[in-house]
Amino acid sequence: MGAAYRSPARARAGDGADRRLLRALDGLYVIPSGHHRPDTGRADAARMLACDDRTLTALARHGLPSTGERGRERFDSRDLFNLALYSGTGRTPVERDVTSLLRWTRSSCEDLIAPRVSRFELGVACGDPDGCRPDARNALARPRTGAYGGAVRHVRAHPGRGGRRVGGAPDAAATTARSSGPAMAISAVLRTVGDCPVLRAPALRAIVREFIGAEPRYLRLPVELRDDPDLVPRGFAGCGAASRYIERLCREEGVPATTRIGWVVGLPDVVHAWVEVVDDDGVTKVIDPTFTLLSEVIPWSNPMLRDPSLAFRTNRLVPTGLHVGGDVASHTCGRAAGTAERPNARVTTRIVPLRPTA
Ligand SMILES: [Zn+2]
To answer: What is this structure's pTM?
Structure first.
């Protein structure tokens, strides 16, 4: 394979971004070889990094993990995502998508707290190519915005074709809705509202201040590593790992704390995680560490999101009754359990605003 001709002007234009990619690779946490998943070929990798073939070769030579013979390497899409996110080029699809999906973090304090109304739909369906088995069971986490001062209305459970509800009458207080059959969905209208109380306990403030000061980075990680709190002292985390880390520090200081998982309005198909703590005044408050993890890539976000003296809870937060490690949707049939992470289940989430913020 010969080197592609590059005009001097084009080479100069591209070289800045290419140098930034190589520099970002130096500080990159790479997915450990035991978890490496070679799911992306060269053409798609170059698209994700918005770089040319020559730069991709240089990245592979300088330590971007790959498998396969030279010139036909395959890469792990999570390495590519993380490298693009912190490349600083501003031209990768990853940077553009994250900026666009998190644009709302620029909003005023009032807009981040005011009540909102959204339509919620969560579904799971069998993904087994050989067809579903007769013993199939489904479980879907219920949205519980009432716990945060909102409301859940017009809840409907739809047992898929051939399915039926398990356990008789629906139990509104239950954490999960269950059914048998090849598919299931629930829908509801959610009212959500934000909050921004002051954190009182000095121990809590110290924990949050130390977490922010350590400047951990958000990374896309394999499911086996995603919730590991021991990653945080090494400088990186997903929202699950960061939440477990803060939960652990709180408990060591005698502060009641528990992790929570759920969704964020406008970020479909992302299961988010945060921490609920009981402050000195007896009030349960939210610490949402992901805005700290992302502060490097959303430097223009409202500083309230990373203020260690505030327990900021966005009006986009939709809690479930589950903790980090729980599954918001699962389908089980035959011997294989299927969740969002395993190919045996197809999970779809839609949370769309019903009308503009009040
Ligand atoms: Zn099935």
So the answer is: 0.88
